[in-house]
Amino acid sequence: MFFKKALIFVLVAIFIFFGTVAGAGTVAGVENTRVVLLYYFNYRMLLQEFPFEPEKAVFPVYRQIPESTTLIRDTIELLIMIRDTIELLIRGELTEEEEELGFITEFPHPGFRLVDLDLTEDGTLILEFTEIFGFTTGGSARILVMREQIEKTACQFAAVKRVEYFPESLFQP
């Protein structure tokens, strides 16, 4: 347990100190950016876990995305930020450094995309994805990791308390 916490601390320090965060600085002429977390599976961390609990091997990588010039004040702007973050996650664009640190992802898949999203008053984020047989279903460990990546990424936003998927058959073992 100590090793895991120490490794996470070291990874964060490396990203901050050396600027290895993909897209560090401004984003293509956009001055205002926001750092978001994208959660990916890290097989090296999984090796530290006994018994096997794949959801505990999902850790953040950091990205900067353009932010509106105004503060996020209403649901529409928040939904845009969440959508952009989820779409960035499912593109699965890991850097070479992140791959060397053990990060891997099931994303992207050419037909898998976010179709729509909605945030209810009680904090339930409803995500609608394209359903792809054999990709959005499968073994329980794989599906659990995919769900964890999406849910941890979405729940970094304070307004999101839980995540539901549509169609309901998505991410079922």
Number of domains: 1
**CA distance, first residue to last residue:** 29 Å
Tally of helical segments: 5
Name the overall outline.
globular
Mean pLDDT across the residues is 79
Strand content: 15-25%
The H/E string reads HEHEHHEEEHE
Helix content: 25-40%
Q: Could you tell me the radius of gyration in angstroms?
A: 16 Å
Number of strands: 6
Low-confidence stretches: 1-27
Strand order of the largest sheet: 2-1-3
Largest pleated sheet: 3 strands, antiparallel
Q: Which structural class is indicated by helix and strand composition?
A: alpha+beta
Structure, described:
The chain is an alpha+beta fold and 173 residues long. The protein has one domain (2-166). The protein has helices at residues 2-18, 43-46, 75-91, 96-100, 140-154; strands at 33-42, 58-66, 103-104, 114-119, 124-129, 162-166. The strands form two sheets. It has a three-stranded antiparallel sheet. A hairpin with a 4-residue loop joins strand 4 and strand 5 (124-129). It is globular, with a radius of gyration of 16 Å. Mean pLDDT is 79; it is low at 1-27.
